[in-house]
């Protein structure tokens, strides 16, 4: 309909190209405009259709397109597009996961826009919540049957419907009830419910400390010994087996989320000779009851399978220089990162890598692998398959790329086998069409017969993998179904079979995309298998190597000469993407207005200055924006730094404070240069 309206009018597609081009990334070149105009020579060609395709590939939104038509004064085209947009159900406020104390009431909210008369229905797991048919769901945690429940909301209009994201409600028992009196977790901050306790142990005992907190967003943890961070100690419970005198000292836990941080009390752990003492504060696992009958048969079985460690490399390529740009990889990598961390994987998540960076990332991934380690590689982006070999396409691949410009998955597998891994998993979310530009048969060499290889392809051989056009932050088809099953305690091949069955129910891709599973796995290996490190030396070295790529700069406070204090905070979105936020926390009474901005960001990061110093994470293009937006402080300014692997030197920038005194019109400016070292993946020098 738009093509009919814009192809042959004075206020047509050329005017639309001119108005849309006011935004630099949507500006079309003379060659592109000529290509559009030549479409009139084709029997069913449309210049407007060609222009809309160009805008779509540059991530133009419906809202921006509607604004362009409005500025053109084309009321009929506006009416056509508006009616189409109104028929779509869009969730604008997603329910948020929360950690709360027992007995409290929790409120989950889901708001949507769309046709009049939207209907809401909340679910707990797969069961409808009776009477829960409003945007807000109030849960009395005292009535919950479990301390861990998952909730989701369905929004519908007639036959059309969409689902919100899952929200996890975790109920913590409060060891000191008085401290939580009147506490509401909706952005008040963080509160520690259970403090670690001092203890005295004998050598060879197990040290177990616990620190539990509530907050929104949910809290994260980092344990310290003698005020130094402990590698790999990022859980509420800290457990160290077979302690020696080297473990004695003062222990504390830093609890933090995006906006706040609190510290537990510091406790002393003494280790010396003497009889072992039970000091664990961690509740024992639920074990099956012991049979009391003397005649009860004893069943001998092999010890359960376990990994010596679990490591995952997740790569998503979106912003290609010479090929169609993608949207889903960012959301897919983020979703899988969160799920795999719940399974105790050490996760490295990277977006938009050139070939050299992908090769270096794989090399660092291989350094984390060793005998018995479960290695998982997930890739989302452009790809192809020739002669049975799969190739991942970097963002800098030329238009007519060949295997020389790409990474061969089978070569990565061969190198993983040399590390004697316990399980090799490849999840390839890419097309597998034949590359007609590449006739080279790669010489990969013979693979070892290890009976521990699993390939999960998002699509069949010689077929394409698709994205769903459901908004800016929707998962690809493969991950949409994969994340439903990933946490299940199933053999990995059984799990992928269930994903394949689910994908087969999607009508729009039936006959076009179907998951393909290839495996020679002979044991019941699962992603949920426990970790049993063979020795502390190997585990510590691996923890250290992984931790190098996940060190964030410490939050700090900057005090300026005018008396204003600015908090400078950092959040990791991916291993190579970091959010910096500034917040004015104190200002003299004679200052009426002030804000702190980040400027002078290193050029190699190629940061779009229009996407810095925004009032919400959503405005800087963060996929976490829906979970942050409800609690964003109005005084916070956010900047998103991508491609940290490109940093040549330490990250340095300027904090520019602009303020105005009462009764004055002009702003005064103060600047402070800040250096934060090499954050996250930049430490590994992937350039």
UniProtKB/TrEMBL annotation:
InterPro entries: Caspase-like_dom_sf, Caspase-related_regulators, DEATH-like_dom_sf, Ig-like_dom, Ig-like_dom_sf, Ig-like_fold, Ig_sub, Ig_sub2. It comes from the Eukaryota. Residues 89-164, 185-270 form the Ig-like domain. PROSITE patterns: CASPASE_P20, IG_LIKE. Residues 308-435 form the Caspase family p20 domain. Pfam families: Ig_3, MALT1_Ig, Peptidase_C14. This is MALT1 protein. The lineage of its organism: Eukaryota, Metazoa, Chordata, Craniata, Vertebrata.
């Amino acid at each position: 309909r738009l093509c009919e309206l814009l192809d042959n009018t004075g206020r047509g597609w050329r005017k639309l190209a001119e108005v849309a081009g006011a935004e630099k990334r949507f500006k079309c070149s003379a060659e592109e405009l000529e290509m559009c105009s030549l479409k009139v020579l084709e029997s069913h060609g449309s210049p407007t259709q060609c222009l809309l395709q160009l805008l779509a590939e540059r991530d133009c939104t419906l809202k921006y397109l509607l604004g362009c038509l409005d500025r053109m004064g084309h009321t009929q085209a506006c009416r056509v597009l508006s009616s189409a947009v109104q028929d779509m159900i869009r969730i604008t406020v997603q329910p948020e996961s929360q950690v709360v104390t027992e007995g409290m009431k929790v409120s989950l909210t889901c708001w949507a826009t769309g046709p009049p008369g939207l209907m809401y229905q909340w679910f707990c797991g797969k069961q409808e919540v009776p009477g829960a048919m409003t945007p807000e769901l109030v849960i009395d945690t005292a009535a919950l049957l479990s301390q861990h429940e998952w909730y989701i909301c369905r929004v519908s209009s007639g036959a059309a419907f969409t689902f919100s994201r899952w929200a996890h409600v975790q109920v913590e028992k409060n060891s000191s009830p008085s401290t939580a009196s009147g506490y509401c977790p909706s952005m008040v901050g963080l509160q520690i419910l259970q403090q670690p306790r001092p203890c005295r142990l004998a050598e060879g005992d197990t040290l177990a400390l616990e620190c539990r907190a509530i907050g929104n967003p949910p809290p994260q943890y980092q344990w310290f010994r003698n005020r130094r961070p402990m590698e790999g100690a990022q859980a509420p419970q800290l457990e160290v087996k077979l302690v020696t005198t080297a473990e004695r000292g003062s222990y504390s836990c830093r609890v933090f989320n995006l906006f706040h941080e609190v510290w537990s009390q510091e406790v002393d752990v003494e280790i010396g000779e003497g009889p072992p003492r039970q000091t664990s504060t961690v509740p024992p696992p639920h074990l099956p009851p012991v049979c009391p009958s003397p005649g009860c048969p004893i069943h001998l079985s092999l010890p359960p399978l376990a990994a010596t460690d679990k490591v995952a490399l997740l790569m998503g390529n979106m912003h290609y220089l010479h090929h169609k740009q993608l949207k889903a990889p960012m959301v897919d990598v983020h979703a899988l990162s969160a799920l795999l961390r719940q399974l105790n994987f050490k996760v490295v998540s990277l977006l938009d890598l050139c070939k050299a960076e992908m090769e270096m990332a794989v090399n660092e991934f291989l350094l984390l692998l060793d005998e018995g380690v479960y290695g998982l590689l997930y890739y989302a982006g452009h790809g192809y398959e020739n002669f049975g070999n799969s190739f991942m396409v970097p963002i800098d691949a030329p238009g007519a790329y060949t295997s020389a410009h790409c990474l061969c998955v089978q070569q990565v597998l061969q190198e993983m086998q040399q590390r004697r891994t316990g399980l090799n998993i490849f999840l390839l979310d890419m097309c597998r069409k034949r590359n007609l530009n590449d006739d080279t048969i790669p010489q990969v060499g013979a693979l070892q017969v290890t009976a521990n290889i699993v390939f999960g392809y998002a699509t069949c051989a010689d077929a394409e993998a698709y994205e769903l056009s459901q908004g800016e932050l929707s998962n690809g088809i493969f991950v949409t179904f994969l994340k439903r099953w990933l946490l299940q305690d199933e053999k990995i091949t059984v799990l992928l079979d269930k994903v394949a069955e689910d994908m087969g129910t999607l009508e729009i891709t039936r006959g076009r995309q179907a998951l393909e599973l290839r495996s020679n796995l002979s044991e019941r290996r699962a992603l949920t298998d426990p970790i049993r490190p063979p020795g502390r030396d190997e585990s510590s070295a691996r923890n250290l190597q992984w931790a190098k790529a996940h060190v964030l700069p410490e939050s700090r406070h900057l005090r300026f000469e005018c008396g204003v204090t600015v908090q400078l905070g950092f959040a990791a979105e991916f291993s190579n993407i970091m959010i910096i936020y500034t917040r004015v926390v104190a200002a003299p009474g004679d200052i009426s207005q002030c804000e702190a901005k980040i400027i002078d960001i290193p050029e190699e990061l190629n940061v779009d200055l229009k996407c810095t110093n925004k009032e919400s994470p959503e405005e800087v293009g963060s996929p976490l924006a829906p979970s942050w937006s409800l609690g964003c402080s109005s005084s916070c300014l956010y900047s998103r730094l991508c491609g940290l692997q490109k940093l040549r030197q330490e990250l340095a920038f300027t904090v520019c404070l602009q303020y105005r005194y009462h009764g004055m019109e002009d702003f005064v400016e103060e600047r402070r240069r800040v250096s934060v070292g090499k954050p996250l993946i930049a430490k590994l020098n992937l350039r």
